[in-house]
Amino acid sequence: MTDSAKITPSKLLEALLGEWQKAIIGKQETLRLVMISLLCRGHLLLEDMPGLGKTTLAKALASSLELNFKRIQCTPDLLPADITGVSIFDQKSQAFRFVPGPVFTNILLADEINRTSPRTQSALLEAMAERTVTVDRKTRKLPATFMVIATQNPIEFSGTFPLPEAQLDRFFMRISLGYPDPGDESRIMRMNRKANPLEEITPVLDEAKLQRLQEVVTQIRLEQNVIDYIAALIQATRQHKKIRLGVSPRGSIALMKAAQASALLHGDRFVTPLRVQELVAPVLAHRMLLRSNSDRAEQILEEIVMATPVPAMPAGTASKEQQRALDLVE
């Protein structure tokens, strides 16, 4: 392999971030969380007020990848078959032929997901958990890079259907963009004066490179004491007096993988407790059911983090095999 063929993960991820920043201004932390979800093959729930760039962010992510992208505009009359596909009778062949729905893609945007019925929302459960779709008693596989990006407005309740716990638990993260700072808002207006910034985004990652990066994340060193620390945090959510339903094992796995991806983004060779702590809220907050609506999940999780003993920093460096995997992406 020549030097020109060697691409470091940091350069690839920096290029990816640069493309997103053509459309999303001043949201470095949010974009980092989006990148972590992408690296961990996780689904993303964007929850925020109207007009803050949820759909723009989803489109920017799709435009920066050489992957198939499809969009579903969720409405009350949307049917499960509109997502998964349907079998129709072909008169020429005198047999039923399956017509795939939009779920058969790499990146699926479910816009305003809480505006469609629970029956239709459930059509995504199998796809999100197992990356398969079963229609007419036949199971079909989805791409390994399949990712759902769903948006919802948290303040409009008329004509909406709250996502059930089983659906929420399948989202790797729930994040929001929030209002921009005055300086960033001025930049946003200048950028949108003459053209749509999304048109300037060019693909920087194909499916093969993305899968390689996703494999590199799994090779980030993870000490047993850090795994035990994650388990202690999860157990605390199940024992807290203000929490009626604690985090599931799916949540503990998600937090572990997110910490590995965060370590990669920061150039670390192993996961530290700090990487775990900074991801507790976006990974876990939406997976809990509180006893009172007056409490905030993020605040309770902050209390849990403060009360849970932090293990000692892992010692040592990556093995030679890990070092080679982290240095190069073919």
Helix-strand blueprint:
Elements: H1 9-20, H2 28-39, E1 44-47, H3 54-63, E2 65-66, E3 69-73, H4 81-84, E4 85-90, E5 95-100, E6 107-111, H5 118-121, H6 125-130, E7 132-135, E8 138-141, E9 147-152, H7 165-168, E10 173-175, H8 182-191, E11 205-206, H9 207-218, H10 224-239, E12 243-245, H11 249-265, H12 273-277, H13 280-284, E13 289-290, H14 297-307, H15 320-327
Parallel strand pairs: 1-9, 1-10, 2-11, 3-6, 6-9
Antiparallel strand pairs: 4-5, 7-8, 12-13
Helix pairs in contact: 2-11, 10-11
Summarize this, please?
The chain is of the alpha/beta class and 330 residues long. The chain has 15 helices and 13 strands.
Description:
The chain has two domains: 10-211, 3-Layer(aba) Sandwich (Rossmann fold), CATH 3.40.50.300; 219-313, Orthogonal Bundle (Helicase, Ruva Protein, domain 3), CATH 1.10.8. The N and C termini lie close together (9 Å). 41% of the residues lie in helices and 16% in strands. The longest helix is centred in the last third of the chain and has 17 residues, at 249-265. Mean pLDDT is 87; it is low at 1-5 and 317-326. With 330 residues, it is an alpha/beta fold. A five-stranded parallel sheet has the order 3-6-9-1-10.
Keywords:
single chain; 330 residues; alpha/beta; Rossmann fold; Helicase, Ruva Protein, domain 3; 2 domains; five-stranded parallel beta sheet; two-stranded parallel ribbon; 16% strand
